[in-house]
Backbone:
């Protein structure tokens, strides 16, 4: 029997911020000649819509499985851990069947799985190599890896009468700037036995047993944190920004695999009416506002942001997706002064192609939830940030943006109109505005060098593909039958 060609199965967590970068990696691997199967839940598969034409792309296929939740489950915001738990409860045989039976196609010889997904034991049982994809950044992942140290040192749970601005000492390399406030949100628990804290700690430790670990970043951006991570996970690949690499591969191959630039493949309908509006604005005069795909606001929070933007003196483009508000009745009546101010200098849309907007010359700042995808996209575009993190790794990312890379400001745990307006003005026109723009421009150039031919991301991508090909020789059809 002929040797099986390398066939990679990719399995992201069923959330846009996880699906998007892993779909980009899947496209890159397909364009580089590997067979690829992209596994999602049935809910995500429906939201991907037409699959961007990839079902017709040679060597690329989609598969889906039920997530075990009722159809009306929101699968967003604070409920997303329920999705992961439900998937973990699925029968191991279901995953086994996906790995060993592909209806006449070549069997899977390597799996790349989201680090939070319940896949490790099945892959190990079938002797199929498993590589983890960490969809967040190295800076947050290192704090996740240090969770046992934080617990052992008594730094989490926080002691009685704690000061949120006190520095933590149990994350090596971050002792001089990381505060309790900046730890991942799952650290804000009352007991070390908290189930979410324990689940995250357990999933993070499992990552150390995979055959490798992938980050969507450039090596030079996160060199210090990567050095710490590689002491525990020595086989680590930095292959980002993936959208930039994908654009380059599409141009070089003339691929028809679909537009690579979108940050939200089929998730919501992108509203392009904002582009002519942006075209009419002066360079660097617009604040772009988006809180990603999971953040939810209360109506008072929405109004504080809205007043702050209306009063700050700058034009703004704000993405208000359909499920942004906690309340089911939407924004309700909007105060007259806000409606008038928005008519004069604002533009509201439900969803946009974020990379395209950030790359527009009219955009001067990004008010963001500090998700890793948004952070990397802003850095690549050279746009400084105003950070209002919502949960998990976003708390760490925003601290790095403000205090390490010095490319923005951090307003975590605060939501009032005066602070919003002050911080927007600080980034747009304050004393440090030019410094932040210079810093982010420097990082943008650094990221471009990483993805250029001979850059670290291209080298790591080549190594990843070479290692996948080598792993495929370890797994024959006979062994997985």
Residues:
């Amino acid at each position: 029997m002929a040797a099986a060609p390398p066939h990679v199965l990719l399995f992201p967590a069923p959330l846009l911020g996880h699906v998007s970068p892993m779909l980009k990696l899947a496209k890159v691997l397909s364009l580089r000649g590997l067979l690829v199967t992209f596994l999602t839940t049935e809910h995500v598969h429906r939201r991907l819509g037409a699959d961007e034409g990839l079902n017709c792309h040679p060597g690329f296929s989609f598969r889906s499985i039920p997530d075990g939740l009722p159809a009306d489950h929101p699968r967003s915001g604070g409920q997303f851990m329920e999705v992961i738990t439900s998937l973990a409860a699925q029968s191991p045989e279901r995953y086994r069947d996906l790995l060993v039976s592909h209806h006449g196609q070549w069997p899977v010889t390597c799996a790349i799985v989201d680090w939070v997904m319940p896949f490790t034991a099945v892959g190990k049982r079938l002797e199929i190599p498993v590589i983890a994809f960490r969809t967040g950044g190295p800076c947050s992942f290192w704090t996740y890896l240090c969770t046992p140290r934080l617990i052992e040192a008594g730094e989490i749970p926080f002691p009685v009468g704690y000061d949120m601005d006190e520095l933590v000492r149990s994350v090596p390399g971050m002792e001089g700037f990381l505060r309790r406030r900046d730890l991942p949100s799952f650290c804000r628990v009352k007991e070390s036995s908290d189930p979410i804290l324990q689940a995250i700690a357990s999933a993070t430790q499992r990552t150390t047993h995979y055959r490798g670990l992938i980050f969507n970043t450039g090596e030079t951006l996160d060199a210090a944190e990567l050095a710490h991570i590689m002491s525990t996970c020595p086989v680590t690949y930095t292959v980002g920004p993936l959208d930039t690499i994908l654009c380059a591969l599409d141009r070089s191959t003339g691929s028809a695999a679909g537009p690579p630039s979108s940050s939200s493949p089929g998730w919501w309908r992108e509203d392009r009416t904002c582009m002519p509006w942006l075209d009419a604005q002066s360079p660097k005069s617009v604040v772009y506002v988006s809180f990603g795909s999971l953040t939810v606001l209360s109506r008072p929070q929405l109004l504080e942001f809205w007043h702050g933007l209306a009063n700050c003196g700058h034009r703004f483009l704000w993405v208000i997706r359909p499920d942004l508000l906690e309340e089911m009745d939407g924004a309700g009546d909007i105060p007259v002064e806000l409606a008038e101010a928005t008519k004069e200098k604002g533009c509201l849309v439900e969803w946009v192609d974020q990379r395209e907007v950030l790359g527009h010359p009219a955009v001067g700042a990004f008010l963001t939830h500090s998700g890793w995808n948004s952070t990397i996209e802003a850095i690549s575009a050279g746009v400084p940030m105003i950070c209002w993190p919502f949960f998990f790794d976003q708390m760490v990312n925003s601290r790095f943006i403000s205090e390490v890379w010095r490319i923005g400001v951090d307003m975590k745990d605060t939501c009032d109109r005066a602070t919003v307006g002050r911080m927007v003005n600080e980034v747009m026109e304050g004393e440090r505005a030019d410094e932040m723009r210079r810093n982010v421009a420097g990082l943008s150039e650094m990221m471009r060098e990483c993805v250029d031919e001979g850059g670290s991301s291209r080298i790591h991508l080549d190594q990843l593909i070479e290692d996948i090909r080598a792993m495929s020789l370890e797994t024959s059809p006979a062994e997985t039958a």
Q: What stands out?
A: The chain has a mean pLDDT of 88.
